[in-house]
């Protein structure tokens, strides 16, 4: 996932054991829930080389792309993200969870959970995971429609994917900790 973040002491995370129809459980003991009161949220589209970042407005109506961060390793990434959440006055974090098309978690989802647990530790903020299926493809399509060349699309893709993840979470009403709502299947 993000370099050495896998070895950040977050192995052994356990599921809360609570699963609802259309949702996937997340570690219940990881962090307190994202506050329902107004405040900015920071969205992450984690990757092994680049991490897309997006931020919401304080009323949590709109997500905006923020930046594409190039992974440098936990010793540099941790302080950077801690400073970023302070500068942006963020009260919670939303991390993309790459589920399989059937909603199951694979290796990348586990890496995302470890990354989110690590983020909770370095920022001291609550973390919630959100289904990120198809967000990178949707971001690429959006950027292609904007008639950007391949280099421009690559520069923006991860932060736009983070924006789509965060906007999906906002549009769903910011569900509480432990809930990853999966979109309903399209009717045949």
Automatic annotation (TrEMBL):
Single GO BP term: rRNA 5'-end processing
Domain YqgF/RNase H-like: 39-139
Primary subcellular site in the record, as a coarse category: cytoplasm
Region (Disordered): 1-41
GO cellular component terms attached to this protein's record: cytosol
Signal peptide: none
Compartment(s): Cytoplasm
Annotated Pfam families: RuvX
Coiled coil regions in record: none
Enzymatic class: hydrolase
EC number: 3.1.-.-
Keyword check for S-adenosyl-L-methionine: no
InterPro entries assigned to the protein according to its UniProt record, in alphabetical order: RNaseH-like_sf, YqgF, YqgF/RNaseH-like_dom, YqgF/RNaseH-like_dom_sf
UniProt KW keywords: Cytoplasm, Hydrolase, Nuclease, Ribosome biogenesis
Matches recorded under PANTHER family: POLYNUCLEOTIDYL TRANSFERASE, RIBONUCLEASE H-LIKE SUPERFAMILY PROTEIN
Family listed: Belongs to the YqgF HJR family.
UniProt function note: Could be a nuclease involved in processing of the 5'-end of pre-16S rRNA.
The name this protein goes by in its record: Putative pre-16S rRNA nuclease
């Amino acid at each position: 996932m993000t370099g050495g973040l896998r070895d950040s002491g977050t192995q052994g995370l356990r599921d809360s054991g609570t699963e609802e129809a259309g949702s996937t459980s997340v570690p219940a003991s990881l962090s307190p829930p994202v506050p329902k009161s107004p405040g900015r949220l920071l969205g992450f589209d984690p990757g092994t080389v680049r991490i897309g970042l997006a931020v919401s407005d304080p009323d949590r109506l709109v997500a905006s792309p923020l930046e594409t961060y190039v992974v440098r390793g936990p010793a540099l990434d941790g302080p950077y993200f801690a400073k970023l959440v302070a500068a942006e006055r963020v009260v919670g974090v939303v991390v993309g969870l790459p589920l399989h098309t059937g909603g199951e978690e694979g290796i990348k989802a586990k890496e995302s959970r470890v990354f989110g647990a690590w983020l909770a530790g370095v920022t001291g903020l609550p973390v919630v995971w959100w289904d990120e299926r198809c967000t990178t493809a949707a971001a690429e399509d959006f950027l292609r429609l904007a008639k950007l060349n391949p280099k421009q699309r690559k520069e923006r893709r991860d932060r736009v994917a983070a924006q789509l993840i965060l906007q999906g979470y906002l549009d769903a009403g910011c569900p509480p900790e432990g809930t990853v709502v999966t979109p309903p299947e399209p009717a045949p």
